[in-house]
Write a structure and sequence with these properties.
With 709 residues, the chain is mostly beta strands. It folds into 2 domains: 37-169, TonB-dependent receptor, plug domain (Ferric Hydroxamate Uptake Protein, Chain A, domain 1, Beta Complex), CATH 2.170.130.10; 184-708, Beta Barrel (Maltoporin, Chain A), CATH 2.40.170.20. The longest helix is centred in the last third of the chain and has 8 residues, at 600-607. Its main location: membrane.
């Protein structure tokens, strides 16, 4: 939040968008040093769907209390509802492909891996409450029920201590409103795509103290590859209830169901080169299948205390299940046009509970307004996995693999399958505190710390083996923000994080957690009354104690000696240049150095991160003249070369997207989106000799009609 004012014959009141000075009556020469603190107005910030535009005043990701983007000394991006709608994003991985600083390793929509700064986002929070996000389990969330997506890059160890170094993603729910409103939306496109969505909200009593919202969405994702059917349904139900003038209870249920005929990509040719095949080529069995279901329940109680304090108690319970069984290429394509066939299958059951209780309070010190937050949280993640992998499904041709006989990989005893039946449990209780202190008006010093009590347990049921590790690590955080003027701020920060590992050492014990740290410096700008935000940043991450192979290459254990250094820079501009002209633009540079090798797979991931990436999207809405009612948009996504750990190389590429919309009146609007406008051929991802070599999507046209009331 932005603070202004001093204590010279005045009292400070919180009104509008800043702390404003109110003159007080006094006798000549008398100095009244009273300060009235009424709370952080950012708790009342408008939703992005109501405010419109391509940016927001503030974010909560990595901060717990809402703060102005300029006052968060780390790299934060916010993708608003309008930006999501303009570009037709249905799932988080679709959004990440076209968001500055994020990298997606393509798979089916809703099952892709999302990265930043070389690390995968392994958790996704809803309103600050985390749960695991794993691509293979299909837990990448849809977007229909969310108002905005807040993305932090770099460690978030103060409030998400056991998360990955890449950062944290926070999805902010759409909320019920007292005013009756809603929309119906239909979309159809090439490659059998269609979307149907209904959204209705309003007061459920005459006074507006009870408000509800219901959203239902049915999505058929485009089928670029033969047989690669991908259907998704999600439902969202929410209630907000005012218990009194200061207290609100919120409950919500989010449901997501996926059904996919899995595409696992293409093999390479006999000499290890990428094949020149039609983009529709499917290398897998027509019986390939993935089904998943996710249900999230959320309860939240908030209270506004006298003197500006704000308290929140919230809980999220996630129940996930997934089962899959599919075949794919098991080798490179031989000279005679044949390849072996591999398969994988799994039955996954996951439960996740996240609890959080926090209290924040602005206060006066040294004539300025500062703020502290204290809290405690708890999370319990449990994943039961019965999985199997095989390379023994025979040999066939590219065309013949579609027709291989059905195999129940998990249960068919006639096939040689490597099976695992595991339970992984992660439990953590933490206490945290953060202080934002302003010794002078233009300087904010942020310090914080977290003490965690964690336990990780790993059970292998087939071998009746079990191991666990626990600890009480402290993770610290420090930052500073200096306002150069009304538009620009310099910032610097230091953040820590740790990540438990399930690899075992020579004695059969789990390795100690990885430890990570980041230093970041940058310049942030806010222009046009906060409608446009800019950031330039430089960062360095160090990752220690990664699981690595011992010197004895025949040994079947790991040592915690892997070490990686990642550094780079980012530029981002997002918001509205005018009320009609919106823009999102970004450039990211990453340089990775593996100082001590870890596993070939883990180190190989860094090779799939391009050194250079560019994202641009701009949209203009005409409000007068012959083109009144029209809006036009265009964008570019460009990446430099990538290479996998198995030596599969793909050149860089740039694709262009475009949109044209027309608003008939306040109720009816239409939109036409074209992705890959020039139908560019490219590989969006490379992998091994047999799989995960993914061609980019062809030119796709989508038409949308929406009716609002």
């Amino acid at each position: 939040m932005r603070y202004t004012g001093c204590l010279l014959g005045s009292s400070l009141l919180f009104v509008g968008s800043a702390w404003a000075v109110e003159p007080q009556a006094s006798t000549e020469g008398e100095r009244l040093e009273t300060l009235t603190v009424e709370g952080n107005r950012l708790y009342d910030m408008a939703s992005s769907e109501d405010a419109g535009g391509y940016t927001t005043d503030a974010a909560t990701v990595g901060t717990k209390t809402p703060a102005s983007l300029r006052d968060i000394p780390q790299s934060i991006s916010v993708v608003t509802r309008e930006a999501m709608d303009d570009q037709n994003f249905n799932t988080l991985d679709e959004l990440a492909r076209r968001t500055p600083g994020m990298r997606v390793l393509n798979n089916d929509n809703g099952r892709s891996s999302i990265y930043a700064r070389g690390y995968e986002y392994d958790e996704a929070s809803i309103d600050g409450l985390p749960a695991p996000m794993q691509s293979i389990n299909g837990t990448v969330p849809p977007l229909s029920m969310f108002d905005r997506v807040e993305v932090m890059r770099g460690p978030s160890g103060l409030f998400n201590s056991t998360s990955e170094m890449g950062g944290i993603v926070n999805l902010v729910r759409k909320r019920p409103t007292a005013d009756f409103a809603g929309h119906l939306m239909g979309r159809a496109g090439a490659h059998e795509q269609h979307v149907l969505e209904g959204d209705i909200r309003g007061a459920l009593d005459q006074e507006g103290h009870v408000r509800g919202r219901l959203i239902a969405n049915q999505t058929q994702h485009p089928e670029f590859v033969d047989h690669n059917d991908n259907q998704q349904q999600n439902v969202y139900l929410a209630l907000d209830m005012d218990l009194n003038a200061s207290t609100m209870l919120s409950v919500a249920w989010l449901h997501d169901k996926k059904s996919i005929t899995v595409n696992n990509g293409l093999p390479v040719g006999p000499e290890g080169h990428l094949l020149d095949l039609p983009r529709s080529r499917f290398v897998g069995a027509t019986w390939n299948d993935f089904d998943s279901q996710t249900d999230d329940g959320i309860v939240e109680l908030t209270h506004r205390f006298a003197h500006g304090g704000y308290g929140r108690v919230a809980a999220r319970y996630s129940d996930r299940s997934a089962d899959y069984n599919y075949a794919f290429g098991g080798s490179a394509l031989a000279d005679d046009g044949t390849l072996s066939v591999a398969g994988t299958a799994g039955d996954i059951d996951q439960r996740a509970l996240a609890l959080d209780a926090s209290y924040s309070q602005p206060f006066e010190a040294l004539g300025q307004v500062s703020e502290f937050v204290v809290g405690t949280d708890y999370k319990h993640f449990r994943t039961d996995s019965f999985t199997g992998r095989t390379r023994g499904l025979g040999t066939t041709t590219l065309a013949g693999i579609e027709d291989i006989a059905y195999v129940d990989i998990l249960h068919d005893t006639s096939v040689r399958v490597s099976r695992a039946n595991t339970r992984e449990t992660q439990e953590e209780l933490g206490v945290y505190s953060k202080l934002t202190f302003r010794p002078i008006e233009d300087l904010a010093l942020i310090v914080g710390g977290r003490l965690s009590d964690y336990e990780v347990k790993y059970e292998e049921r087939l071998n009746d083996a079990e191991d666990q590790r626990d600890g009480h690590p402290f993770t610290g955080y420090a930052g500073a923000v200096y306002d150069l003027n009304a538009q620009h701020s310099l910032y610097a920060s230091y953040a820590e994080v740790f990540k438990p590992q399930t690899a075992q050492d020579a004695s059969g014990q789990l390795l100690k957690p990885r430890e990570g740290e980041q230093q970041e410096v940058g310049l942030k700008g806010s222009y046009l009354d906060g409608r446009l935000n800019m950031r330039v940043s430089a960062f360095r991450l160090q990752d220690h104690h990664r699981a690595a192979a011992p010197e004895d290459t025949t040994a079947n254990y790991n040592v915690s000696k892997g070490k990686v250094r990642i550094q780079g820079g980012e530029f981002e501009l997002s918001g509205n240049l005018t009320p009609q002209w919106a823009v999102i633009a970004g450039y990211t540079y990453i340089d990775t150095q593996v100082k001590v090798a870890s596993t070939s797979r883990d180190d190989g991931i860094f090779m799939l991160m391009p050194h250079h990436s560019v994202n641009l999207w701009t949209q203009y809405q005409f409000d007068r003249g012959l083109l009144q009612g029209f809006e036009m948009g265009a964008g570019v996504t460009a990446l430099s070369d990538i290479e996998s750990s198995q030596g599969v190389h793909a050149g860089g590429y740039a694709v262009v997207d475009a949109m044209l919309g027309y608003t008939f009146d306040e109720h009816l609007s239409t939109q036409l989106n074209v992705r890959n406008l020039f139908d560019r051929d490219y590989y969006a991802r490379v992998g091994g000799q047999n799989t995960f070599n993914m061609l980019g999507e062809p030119m796709t046209v989508e038409a949308t009609v929406r009716y609002d009331w």
